[in-house]
Specification:
The chain is of the alpha+beta class and 464 residues long. Helices cover 39% and strands 20% of the residues. The chain has helices at residues 3-12, 31-40, 64-75, 131-144, 161-174, 185-191, 207-213, 216-222, 250-264, 279-293, 338-347, 355-367, 391-415, 421-428, 432-444, and strands at residues 18-21, 44-48, 89-94, 97-104, 117-121, 124-128, 150-151, 195-197, 203-206, 228-233, 242-246, 271-272, 275-276, 303-308, 311-317, 324-325, 372-377, 380-386, 448-451, 458-461. A seven-stranded mixed beta sheet has the order 11-10-14-15-18-17-16, covered by helices on one side. α10 packs antiparallel against α12 (355-367).
Length: 464
C-alpha cells in the first residue's frame, strides 16, 4: 500500500474491514480478537498507532522493531491463534509519525483466540457462542474454499520430500529468519496450514497440500482434470503457434508458466530511478501467481494463458464474489485460496493480496504505451491486457509471421512433394484454413505449383 492509500483508509474510518489500535509501545490486549474476527469473516486491515477516531498518534519508534517481532511471533503461536496464521506488519510514516499496518486476509478455515471464536460485524469484534452461528461460518468456508478439502487417507509419506525441501529453500531466500525454517517437515506442513483438523472432527492433509507437495500421480488421482494451458496465437488464432500443458505441482507449475511467458513476451528496457527493472517480471510474475493462487481447483475446466498479437489473456475457473468488470478504485482484494495465497507470499512469488492488479496498472504504461488492462470477476476470472500498436508495426509483424510460415511449408514440400494440406497443418500445428491461405499465397507468388489433381498429385517448387 502507498502512504496515500493508508491516508484514505484512515479518513474512511473504522468499519467491517478496518480497525484502528493505539498500540503506542505494546500490542493491544484485544489485537488477536480482531485478527481472529477478520480471518473468520472477510479479512481486513489493522492500523497500529491510530486512535479510534482516526487521529494519527504514531507508534514509539524505540519499540517498533519489537512490536513487529511480537506480531510475527504471536501469529505463529498456536496458544494465541489456532490454527496459526503467519502475519507481519509494514511500517509507514504518515504526517511525520510511524504507524504499522497488518493486512489480514479471509482464511479458509475457522480460527480461535484464547479458545474463543470471533466474528466481525460493522466495526466490532463479537464472540461467537451459538452453535448455529459457528456452523454457518464453517459451511460458508467449506462451500467457498475448496483448497481446504481434507483427504484423511493421504499420509505424509505420499508427498515428495524434495518439494518440501525446495519450498523451505525459497522461504529462506525470501526471509532468512522465518519461523517455519526451524520446524521439521511434518510441523512445517501443519504450521503452514496444510494439515487441518475441522470442527466436525475430520482431520488430514488438504487439497492445498496435495497441489504443492504431491507427486504427479497423487495430484492426478485426486483431481484428474487439473491442468494449466499456455498458448501462443499470434498467427494461427484458430489453433496455436505454441502450446504448453502443465499438470504438475504448483512449485514447478509457476516456473514452467513463467518460462513460457519469458519465451514469448519481450522485456523492454526500463529504469526505475537508476535501477534496471524487469517490466515483464513486474507485470506477469504476479499474474501467473494469481492464476495459480486464485483458481477453483475442483472445477474441471483448465486455467488458460493466451498470448495474442494484440493482447494477453489470463482465465481461471473461479468462485465469483463481485461479478462483472472490477473498478480498481473501488476494489477490495481478497484471497480465494488463502492458504495457497499465504504460502505463495512466504515463497516470495507474490507481494500481497491485490498486488498483481496494482503492478499491472503501475507498469503497463511503461511496458506498452496506451495499453489497457481489464479484470472481470465471473465464473471465469479473466484478466485481459489489450496492447495498442500502430498499423505499420502490426503489418510488419504479420508479414514476418507469414514469411516464416510459408518458408516452413516450402521446407516440408522439399522433403515430401506428395504431402497434403492436412499433413502440413498437423506438423506445424496450424489450422487447415490457415495453411490453405499460405499455400494460395505461395502459388500466387509463383513459388510452388500443383502438378496433377488434389488427390494423387504432388507439389513442385519453382526455382527462380
Amino acid at each position: 500500500m502507498t502512504n496515500q492509500e493508508i491516508l484514505n483508509i484512515i479518513h474512511s474510518g473504522e468499519g467491517r474491514r478496518i480497525e484502528f489500535k493505539k498500540s503506542i509501545n505494546k500490542l493491544s490486549d484485544n489485537l488477536f480478537e480482531t485478527v481472529c474476527a477478520f480471518l473468520n469473516t472477510v479479512g481486513g486491515i489493522i492500523l497500529l498507532g491510530v486512535a479510534d477516531d482516526g487521529e494519527i498518534i504514531g507508534v514509539d519508534s524505540n519499540t517498533i522493531t519489537k512490536l513487529k517481532k511480537d506480531i510475527s511471533n504471536q501469529s505463529n503461536n498456536p496458544q494465541k491463534i489456532e490454527p496459526v496464521f503467519m502475519l507481519s506488519a509494514l511500517e509507514y510514516i504518515i504526517d511525520g509519525k510511524q504507524i504499522l499496518a497488518i493486512e489480514v486476509p479471509e482464511s479458509s478455515t475457522v480460527h480461535k483466540t484464547n479458545n474463543e471464536i470471533y466474528f466481525r460485524n460493522e466495526d466490532g469484534d463479537y464472540k461467537v457462542t451459538r452453535l448455529e452461528k459457528i456452523a454457518e461460518i464453517v459451511n460458508r468456508k467449506k462451500n467457498y474454499f475448496s483448497e481446504q478439502t481434507v483427504y484423511p487417507y493421504i499420509s505424509f509419506n505420499d508427498f515428495d520430500y524434495h518439494l518440501i525441501l525446495r519450498a523451505k529453500r525459497l522461504i529462506k531466500i525470501n526471509n532468512p529468519e522465518h519461523h517455519w525454517l526451524s520446524l521439521n517437515d511434518k510441523e512445517f506442513l501443519s504450521r503452514a496450514g496444510f494439515y487441518k483438523k475441522s470442527i466436525e472432527g475430520t482431520q488430514g492433509y488438504t487439497l492445498a497440500a496435495v497441489l504443492f507437495f504431491g507427486t504427479d500421480e497423487l495430484i492426478h488421482s485426486i483431481i484428474p482434470a487439473y491442468k494449466f494451458e499456455a498458448l501462443v496465437r499470434k498467427f494461427n488464432v484458430d489453433r496455436y503457434d505454441d502450446r504448453l500443458t502443465v499438470r504438475t505441482n504448483l512449485l514447478d507449475a509457476y516456473d514452467l508458466l513463467m518460462g513460457f511467458i519469458e519465451k514469448h513476451i519481450n522485456d523492454p528496457f526500463y529504469l526505475e530511478g537508476t535501477m534496471r527493472i524487469s517490466l515483464r517480471s513486474k507485470i506477469f510474475r504476479e499474474l501467473v501467481a494469481n492464476i495459480i493462487a486464485h483458481r477453483e481447483y475442483l472445477n474441471t475446466a483448465p486455467a488458460v494463458i493466451t498470448i495474442f498479437n494484440n493482447k494477453f489473456e489470463f482465465k481461471n475457473p473461479n468462485n465469483p464474489k463481485q461479478y462483472g468488470i472490477i473498478d480498481p478504485k473501488h476494489f477490495t482484494p481478497y484471497a480465494k485460496n488463502p492458504t495457497i495465497s499465504k504460502f505463495m507470499l512466504q515463497l516470495g512469488r507474490v507481494e500481497e493480496v491485490g498486488s498483481g492488479m496494482k503492478n499491472v496498472y503501475k507498469y503497463l504504461p511503461e511496458f506498452s504505451k496506451n495499453s489497457k488492462a481489464e479484470f472481470i470477476d465471473n465464473d471465469f476470472f479473466t484478466t485481459v491486457i489489450n496492447l495498442k500498436s500502430d498499423e505499420k508495426t502490426t503489418q510488419k509483424t504479420t508479414q514476418k509471421t507469414t514469411q516464416k510460415s510459408t518458408q516452413k511449408i516450402i521446407e516440408l514440400i522439399s522433403i515430401n512433394s506428395f504431402i497434403t494440406t492436412n499433413e502440413i497443418a498437423d506438423i506445424l500445428g496450424f489450422s487447415r484454413s490457415g495453411i490453405a491461405k499460405n499455400i494460395a499465397t505461395l502459388k500466387k507468388e509463383g513459388k510452388i505449383k500443383r502438378v496433377g489433381p488434389d488427390k494423387g498429385g504432388y507439389w513442385q517448387i519453382i526455382e527462380k
